Amino acid sequence: MMHDGTSRSDAIVGSARIPIARSHTAYKNASNLDMMSATLKALVDKYQLAGQTLGDVSLGAVIEHSRDWNLAREAVLSSGLSPNTPAFDLQRACGTSLSGCVMIANRIALGQIDAGIGAGTDTVSDPPIVYDDEYRSIMMASYRGRSFGQRFKPWLGLRPRHFKPVLPGVEEPRTKLSMGQSTEITAKEWQITREEQDALALASHQKAEAAYAEGFYDDLIVPFEGLSKDNNVRADSSMEKLAKRKPVFDRSGAGTMTAGNSTPRTDGAASILRASEDWARERGLPVLAYLDFCKVAAVDFVNEEGLLMAPAYAVSDMLTDAGLSLQDFDFYEIHEAFAAQALATMKAWESAEFCRNKLGRDAPLGSIDRDKLNVKGGSLAMGHPFAATGGRIVGALAKLLHQKGSGRGLVSICTAGGMGGTAILSAP
Q: What is the CATH number of domain 179-215+291-426?
């Protein structure tokens, strides 16, 4: 049997992450394994898990070297956990660590394990650099040769163009558009103004800086490579400074998305410790929050919908499952891949036409209280290491709910491939 027929409450015990760094800065010499190992070790140290065997660890990265084919297991072996702790790699683009947390939560709820970790890491500073298929074909043809002549002959076709490296791209294979280019289309469709985008970006920086000043992140972040704070947060940001930025994805004069209202390329890692209540209580560990509901969705971004609009659908379905309205939350953690993307999602929930024709609802989901949105800063300020963002968000939201002592929080994360992951957390 997959489980004993009952379902257990699983707890979010806590989290740990390293600061998020703009790519090619503090972590320019660090690999995904380096960052993930440091993050897991911080979690192990924080909750006195050294030498303990956990039920499972689920983590991954979006941009990976072939050498990282067993990244999760290798990171666990460097973490201080017992070598008997199993682990597996997972990848759902920007929703990777949220999906990892959900998978561990499900295994705990089903009684398969008592405790586990969901995590994620990503670096743009250490990308896999490969050569084109023609060069690879030459090398493989030579490798397959049985004689010296057979091994030498393929190299006669070698040309200077074969030495041009191929860097990993972030464009969608089916549309050949980057996330930014795709979101520019969405911004125009939803008539998201430049001023709206800049205002959301400014609020993200201001909230993140205020959170650091009050010490909110002191017990969530462990220093790494000389960095103790996300180095993209701009305390001196202003609407005037943001207004000076030029559009980067549409330079025709109609573009509204800039480097100031889009997430920068960043490196980082985050982890979440999950356990059954009994396991946590027996060890004197806290229960910060519960994960009550989750949902993933996908849209036809090639023909019908915006690339990053899937969370609008996933949240609607999740609210139906939970029997809740969009206004029944104390905190909203909406991933800010781009200001335009977050604003379009919220505008979709407010649209009677979208909710009727796309979500099958009789009435719009409505507006959210912006004072409850990303209250400790969002991705526009802190950055977005693809696979780590979900862990960052869940860790911060769990702490917010624990501090409040009551209430619910909504998580919404858009991902590449036209997908979205969402979750509802609640205080114990």
A: 3.40.47.10
